[in-house]
Amino acid sequence: MNAPVERALLAPVVVGVDGSEPSLRAVDWAADEAVLRGVPLRMVYACLWDRYEGAAVARDIGRPTALPLPQDVVGAAVQRARTRHPDVQVSADVVFEEPEYALFREGRDASVLVVGTRGRGGIAEMLLGSVSLAVAASADCPVIVLRGSHDNQAMPPVHGRVVVGVGEEVKESAVVRFAAEEARRRGVPLEAVRAWRCPAHETTDHPLLAGDPARLHEEKAVEELEAALQDVPADVDVHRRTVEGHARRVLVDASHEADLLIVGARRREGRFGLQLGRVAHAALHHSACAVAVVPHREHEA
After folding, report:
1. How far apart (Å, rounded) are the C-alpha atoms in residues 161 and 187?
2. pLDDT digits (tens, 9 = 90+) for 7-33
3. How much is the pLDDT for 259?
4. Higher-pLDDT residue of 265, 274
5. How many helices (H) and strands (E) does the chain have?
6. Rounded CA gap, 128 and 117, in Å?
7. Is residue 75 over pLDDT 90?
8. 0.70 surpassed by pTM
9. In whole numbers, what is the pLDDT of the chain averaged over residues?
């Protein structure tokens, strides 16, 4: 009778590894996340190289260590996680297929999926890899993409704050619920941000009415924010903030003082391909901290 509940509670944190520095930082975060949630940690290395070539090619060219074997990469990642958290339950697997497909499939049974950026040094470090973007835009579970200089740790908190962007869709309960749980696990406040704008034509029709339209838009934003937060547990310390401006800029600015920025992404039933809104896309590319993209379903009429 309780089997589905127990299965959900034990859904692992899944992390994609490939031996790169960003993926090693992802292992650190994922290990922390697994401990915070009290669930197992699962590592997945998806690649195509060994299917066609493998160790024999490396030996034939006289450089057996030129390209590490997938099993070696996974083994090093497992050791790293166990060194960080000796009690965490770790499993690992090598899958010979495109990484985005493998991680999408793994996300169906995960509590959260963690991936790193793929840039290496300098400006490239600021770019988001195609695999990370594809997974964040299609996965069925929340996806945490690591960004920033301190994003190799979920605990202890660096800034002591989790930020969630609340959009016009008040029914984004999955997004707010995820954010509240993440803040509670870390023992930090949750800052809920609702950006709002007043169209220019509404403030220029008459000089005496210049301030009223803006005030009405702000009041509406406050009401929508309160509605979105009505089911947040009382033991979560929530800081409410409404800010005039584009949501993309407002949330990226907020990320500079946060450990985790959480945004929603609508998934429309019956549609395929990448489903990622402009706000989530901007956060993934420009956030100063780790970004969690939480999917919420929208049924077609």
Report:
1. 9
2. 445 899 999 998 888 889 999 999 999
3. 95
4. 265
5. 11, 10
6. 5
7. yes
8. yes
9. 82
Confidence tier at 119 by pLDDT (50, 70, 90): very low
Tally Cβ neighbours within 10 Å of residue 285: 17
Provide CATH code, domain 11-148: 3.40.50.620
166 by Cβ neighbours in 10 Å (0-12 / 13-18 / 19+) ranks as buried
Amino acid letter, residue 55 = A
The one-letter code for the residue type at 46 is A
State which fold the 156-301 domain adopts: Rossmann fold (3.40.50)
Q: Which residues pair with 93 in a beta bridge?
A: 44
Give the dihedral of Cα atoms 222, 255, 283, 268; nearest 10 deg.
-50
Identify the three-state secondary structure at position 6: helix
* DSSP codes joined into one string, 21-62: HHHHHHHHHHHHHHHHHT--EEEEEE-SHHHHT-HHHHHHTT
Q: Which residues of the chain form CATH 3.40.50.620? A: 11-148
Q: Are 180 and 187 in contact (CB under 8 A)?
A: no
The whole-angstrom separation of Cα 156 and Cα 166 is 25
